[in-house]
Amino acid sequence: MHYQEDLVGKGLQRAISEKLVSRNDVWLQTKFTSLDGQDLTRPIPYHRDAPVAEQVRQSVGDTLAAYRALEAFVDAGAITSLGVSNIYDPDELAWLIGAARVPVAYVQNRWYEGNGWNWPIYDLCQKHGIAYQSFWTLSGSPSLLAHPLLKKLAQRHKVTPEAAVYRLCELWNITPLCGSTNPKHMAQALAAEHAFGKDEPEVGKLWKLMHGEED
């Protein structure tokens, strides 16, 4: 649940109690967000006056201070891997990669037409074996969803344009974060898995188009 992680916990507890899943079936990812990214009209998971490192401890700034605090939880076995979100300067990410004791495993960024699909950060992630997770994947790219190449590709494989974008992400080693609560939309997104491959001509053309190499 977007910004309502307490509901994730309640939903998971219910699913486990009803034997729909076991805890080992579910991979959970949570995110520490500093005060400047919080909605202060709602409860926050740490004391707002606490130092950054203490804010992190209370919820399980300074990027490295937060990362260092979280590294301690990896050492303790409470967290298995670490990543960062909303990092758009390649030099900053490269610095963190070099400074981190626990390797950066994930980057979660906006991937949309407004930032040119964030290719410099994506490329750095590919170079260092970091999983790239995208958000604003659909809502931020109306021109991509409306593009004739994408529509043609989607129609030929009987999937929605939105699902085709998710499949492109899969082909390009991007994990799109799907925030839908609509069962139909979720089913459509899952239906696109393996719908088409990299050998489709539109896939290469869209890659070039989104890199500014073609009109």
TrEMBL record:
Gene3D superfamilies associated with the record: NADP-dependent oxidoreductase domain
Q: What are the protein's GO molecular function terms?
A: oxidoreductase activity
* Gene coding for it: xyrB
Q: What is this protein called?
A: NADPH-dependent D-xylose reductase II,III
Originating organism = Vanrija pseudolonga
InterPro entries linked to this entry: AKR, NAD(P)_OxRdtase_dom_sf, NADP_OxRdtase_dom
Tell me which residues make up the NADP-dependent oxidoreductase domain. 63-194
